[in-house]
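Let us practice reading a record.
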Amino acid sequence: MIFYTPFDIGYKIAKFLPVKIVCAAMKEIYRQVNVAYQFSRYFFISPYAYKNYVFAHIKENIKMI
């Protein structure tokens, strides 16, 4: 969007503080949804994954970085 708008309108909108806050919040929500999906996938694949809950949590957070 930023590169295709004339007269730097996209840049000005993207740098506007409320828009930045909304984009950051959406990014974090998407990250948490993705982590939850990966957890459910991990627990579906490994039936004894509940014993390795801490390991799964660490693995998924490292993978998301």
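A brief commentary: The radius of gyration is 18 Å.
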